[in-house]
Amino acid sequence: MLIKRRRGWELPESSATPESVYLNRRAVLAGMGIAGIGLSLPSLALAQAGAARNDRYKLDRPITPEKLSTTYNNFYEFGDSKNIWSTAKDRLKTRPWTIKIEGMVDKPIEIGIDDLIAKMPMEERLYRHRCVEAWSMNVPYTGFALSALIDMAKPQSGAKYLIMQTLADPRMFPGQREFYYPWPYTEGLTMAEARHELSFIATGLYGKPLPAANGAPLRLATPWKYGFKHVKSISRLEFSDKRPQTFWEKLGPDEYGFWANVNPQVAHPRWSQATEKPLGSDERIPTQLYNGYAEFVAPLYADLKNEKLFM
User: Fold this and answer.
1) Does the residue 155 lie in any domain?
2) In this structure, what DSSP letter does residue 300 have?
């Protein structure tokens, strides 16, 4: 008798998008003459809806209701409460939006958001998201593999890190007027992490363009790391041979480190990480090592045992 054991990140069939809905969505795009052509601003929303799902990345639990995951967010550029979605929606303007790619590259690049998206292989992925505050959600991101952007940038062989920053604009982001924060929000990955297949640049959520509160128009998604690594509203990328000191490292080096890999056995200095509370649930569930993605990413850290990998 063959018994199939569902892996930690697999999604039950009952939670997947029905095939008839997905095919109808593709048919609508084709009928409008949009599928397969380059993006323009009016067609961007439809391009998000038309991205094919990559079935390699799955979940073991239902997708979080859209209203919850788009209205309960950390985005300190708009304030330190979770209810910043309406402020973000009113203030964040994502067109025009330019991304600068510089540092250790043969030729620096400055590219508009729509031109960038038009060059990238768009897809949808189901990802877990685990906040360091011990809440979690499960969402369908649209976007592209970070490795595709790296290939376009052509970094030099000596580059060891990819540094990413949120747009610096205190007029748009009122939180950036607070002098005690080390703006702009800065995060980084090793090149091995950045090129890893799970590293993803999200441009959409639930088949729609990414909401402001979730980091429009570009945000990082590295699902094996705590959410503060997932830098939002990216406007600058730099390839470097020096490890950056990231936003939360500067603020609280004893609580937030560079690596920030999820581990239920390593507590935050002020609370346990053994369990998490999914948005919309009153129950806590066990947290998994690397947020359930250990089979994908554990080899990245095999030779880094002296590093504080789980802060």
Assistant:
1) yes
2) G
DSSP state of 289: G
Domain residues for the domain of 246 are 13-301
Closest CA to 293 of 16, 1, 8: 8
Give bridge partners of residue 130 from the DSSP assignment.
Answer: 136
Q: How far apart are CA 277 and CA 197, in angstroms?
A: 27
List, as one string, the DSSP characters of 99-153: EEEEESBSS-EEEEHHHHHHHS--EEEEEEEE-TTSEEEEEEEEEEEHHHHHHHH
How far is CA 209 from each of CA 41, 49, 166, 228, rounded to the nearest angstrom?
11, 9, 18, 21
Burial classification of residue 10, based on how many CB atoms lie within 10 Å of its CB (0-12 exposed, 13-18 middle, 19 or more buried): middle
Which of helix, strand or coil describes residue 235? strand
Structural domain includes residue 164: yes
Q: What angle do CA 127, 201, 214 make, to 5 degrees?
A: 70
Q: With pLDDT > 90 as the criterion, what percentage of the chain qualifies?
A: 83
The total number of structural domains that make up the chain: 1
Kindly report, residue by residue over 269-302, the tens digit of the pLDDT. Answer: 999 999 999 999 999 999 999 999 999 999 999 9
Residue 181 within a domain: yes
pTM of structure: 0.87
In a domain, 81, yes or no: yes
296/306 Cα distance (integer angstroms): 21
The 3-state DSSP class for residue 40 equals coil
Phi, psi (deg, nearest 5) at residue 231:
-55, 140
CA distance 301 to 61: 27
182-194 pLDDT per residue, tens: 999 999 999 999 9
CATH classification of the domain holding 268: 3.90.420.10
Region class of 69: left (phi > 0), else alpha (psi between -120 and 50), else beta: alpha
Phi, psi (rounded to 5 degrees) for 85: -60, -40
